[in-house]
Amino acid sequence: MAENPILICARDRELRSELEDALSNAGHRTITVTTPADAVATMRGTTIDIIVAEGLAASGAIASMRVASEGQITPILVVAPAHDVEARIAFLEAGADDVIAGSFARSELESRVEALLIRSGKVRPDSSKPASGELVAFFSPKGGVGTTTLAVNTAVLLAGGTAPATSGTSAITPDLARVALLDLDLQFGQVATHLNLTPRYDAGVLASDEAALADADMARSYLTVHSSGVAVMAAPPRPEVEFDITLEQVQQMVEILRPSFDHVVVDLGSRLDPRSLWVLEQADAQVLVLFPEIAALRATSQLLAFLAESSTIETKTHIVINHVFPKELLKTRDVENLLRTKPAAEVPYTEVEMIRAVNEGVPIVIGHPTSPAAGAMRRVAQAIIGIEQMAMPERAPQRRGLFGRR
User: Fold this and answer.
1) Hey, CA dihedral for 355, 356, 360, 365, is it positive or negative?
2) N- to C-terminal Cα separation, the chain
3) Contacts of 37 (CB under 8 A, 6+ apart)
4) Are the C-beta atoms of 365 and 165 separated by less than 8 Å?
5) pLDDT digits (tens, 9 = 90+) for 324-381
6) Which one, of 303, 371, 366, lies nearest residue 145 by Cα?
7) pLDDT at 389 over 70
8) Which residue(s) pair with 76 in the sheet?
């Protein structure tokens, strides 16, 4: 990691020492102060690339520290009290660029600092490391809320395959596809059904092939490419196969395939186990799907609390409300109040179109691209890649990437 001037602002002597020691050993030049006022004064005469501040010390002063250097905004990483989810949310709302729990590991601190330096243009990514596609995990702690529907349609949008197309396989080979869709709902995953595919291989077969798990070209040969351009790894056809797939094999599958694609979308279903938890931890973006009723909200709230307390997750979480039933049991504002976040999208109830899309194996963004539901799906993809406006699908039958990038 390159040397970068980092300002540490912390009142707690032990924390100051730990931060200074960790960042110095990582190759950075550190300057240490105890108060926000001292931080602001230091930044007026010294070039600082990033601020690492103790949350209790920085409370109420985050905004002033970020703009203390004339003509630029300095990223700030706040160290929040361990296990205090509300404090972490409050610091982000106050303007912190990232928040790390006080019980951090040194490797996590280094990774978060490096990520902020790369994001701000102070450090270039290590070009010697193979580029990895964005990992997007779809999950719901309560089944039957449309997680697979959201994952499938989002993958199709990211692949740019929204023009009218026939369902089923494509002549495109896996090495040309830019989006992968992995069905890791290993007992009863239905991604293949949603796309009208009959794959020759599946996750269980790939997991049992040690050679393929170590060779990217071999691993890609286990994928089936849909006519939309999405390369699919289907779930095993028999539920008992799930018991033979280990966490290590799931890690190898994801890691060997990820560098080959721009996006790797994973349907995790609704079962939280070591395999799905690992994917959630590794994901660049999590999409949590829920139906607006009390049980689903409580389950989602419990999941978010669990992830915050038990995992070192460095990702962006998007909440999607899917109205799978016609009756609205709770208002959107009730969801926002309980989860303390604004949903990335709200999929309206569209009984006939949704059921027909699944039964025919034609995603709704292909079969009904101008429908309100398809518009909501586009907002999900928009949130994932950070584009403010999502282009409407092209009508001409051509292969192109999302927003004409490919």
Assistant:
1) negative
2) 32
3) none
4) no
5) 776 666 777 777 777 777 788 888 878 778 888 888 888 988 888 888 888 888 888 8
6) 303
7) no
8) 51
Amino acid present at 271: R
DSSP structure class, residue 49: S
Write out the two tokens for 57: 């010390």
Domain with CATH 3.40.50.2300 in the chain: 5-119
Evaluate whether 113 touches 28 at the Cβ level (below 8 Å). yes
For the domain covering 5-119, report its CATH number.
Answer: 3.40.50.2300
- At a CB cut-off of 8 Å and minimum separation 6, what does 206 contact? 212, 213, 219, 222, 233, 253
Is the CB of residue 212 less than 8 Å from the CB of residue 161?
no
| DSSP for residue 131 | P
Residue 29 near residue 117 (C-beta atoms within 8 A)? no
Which phi and psi (to 5°) does residue 306 adopt?
-65, -45
Question: Which pLDDT score, from 0 to 100, does residue 64 have?
Answer: 83
Q: Which amino acid is residue 23, in one-letter code?
A: L
Q: pTM here?
A: 0.62
Alpha carbons 60 and 55: distance in angstroms, whole number: 10
Mean pLDDT of all residues in 108-117:
83
Q: Are strands 230-233 and 179-183 parallel, antiparallel or unpaired?
A: parallel
Listed in sequence order, the residues at least 6 apart from 362 whose beta carbon sits closer than 8 Å to its beta carbon are: 167, 196
d(CA 304, CA 18): 28
Which residue ranges does the chain devote to CATH 3.40.50.300? 134-404
Cα 335 from Cα 343, distance rounded (Å): 8
pLDDT digits (tens, 9 = 90+) for 193-220: 999 999 999 999 999 999 999 999 999 9
Output the six-digit token pair for 65.
Answer: 């520290």
CA distances from 287 to 178, 216, 266, 344 (A): 20, 27, 10, 9
**Residue 124's pLDDT is what?**
57
Question: Which superfamily does CATH assign the domain made up of 134-404 to?
Answer: P-loop containing nucleotide triphosphate hydrolases (3.40.50.300)
What are the counts of helices (DSSP H) followed by strands (DSSP E) for the chain? Answer: 17, 13
Residue-wise pLDDT for 23-82, tens only, equals 998 889 999 999 989 988 998 888 899 999 998 766 778 878 878 876 678 888 989 887
